[in-house]
Amino acid sequence: MTYDAHIIRRLLTGYLLLIGGLIIFFVVLHYVEYVDDFMDRGATMRDVFLIYYPNYVPEIIKLTSPLALFISAIFLTSRLSQKLELASLQTSGVSLYRLIVPFAATGLVVSIGMFAFNGWVVPQTNQVRLAFEQDYTKDAPRRAEYANIHRINAPGSVLSVNFYERRSKTATSVTLQQFSEEGRLLERIDADRMVWSDSLETWTLISPIIRTFDENGERRRVDMAQLDTTLALGPRDLARVQGDVEAMTITEARDYLQTLQRTAANRTGAALVGYHTKYSYPFANLILVLLAVPLASVRRRGGHAVQLGIGLFVAFAYLAIMKLTEPFGYAEALSPLMTAWLPHMLFAVIAGWFVFRART
Predict the structure, then answer these.
(1) Domain ranges in the chain?
(2) Is the pLDDT at 57 greater than 90, yes or no?
(3) Which of 17, 50, 174, 199 sits between 20 and 30 A of 84, alpha carbons compared?
(4) pLDDT on residue 140
């Protein structure tokens, strides 16, 4: 038990130090790259360092946590191996499988903690971060305006919008059609504009023309100044940007994707991959720890430098496979669920093989 506590304490200490170092590294690197954008677009240093980067830090922690825990485990195991502490323990009858227990327990606890952190804390800070990037960086996703949108509002009800402006939540040249089960047009509403009311959570149609139809054609026409109506579609359902799911908690993202599927929205691959990644990515912490211990437990010529080099190669191979599979999921050439889990499943098998091959 004393040995386990000693390992856990040293592993977490290295993990936290590496997280801190990586945060500083990423912030400095990001600032150097985007300082011109900040200056050109009028961002003050107070906004950059007291609003933007504090809200960027949780995203950095989310991304670097597996790497930090992996390097910490590699370094600690390599140190124990180089100092012959592992050999001494194994000589006394303690198997490497038993030595992995505190590492695995730490990896599991960090994975569970990061699942909650990634699923509910990071989305809140990402809302501020992404909004800031939209205003002050030229490389931010700019797909905030959409044209020629068609959505299913309800069974038999189709909404068509010529142009939607996300920021003002205003749609222009709006058509709402209601069809019978046989596909016959029953009602059509045409409006110049449609504006969302946050307080009432309703849409206001400006200058709507309401037409009703029967078997013989148009039966009635009503011209109005405006009309308040409740639709199953909200502002988020009409326009989507790349960072939408990043700024949603797991429960919000689930509801959002259900709405996209119900409204027959297209190009949902990226959103689905992002949603499933919220579940899969935290477990990289556990998988990489299970891979690190048997990998670094073998003494190699060159000591810590060689062990660290091997560890970094494995970690970046892991990251490369995740990035290489993502475009297939975005295009839905590969199932988004499989896209999110495939790299982790692959490295879980590799980690299991290394653990199985570990000497007793």
Answers:
(1) 2-139+272-357, 145-239
(2) yes
(3) 17
(4) 60
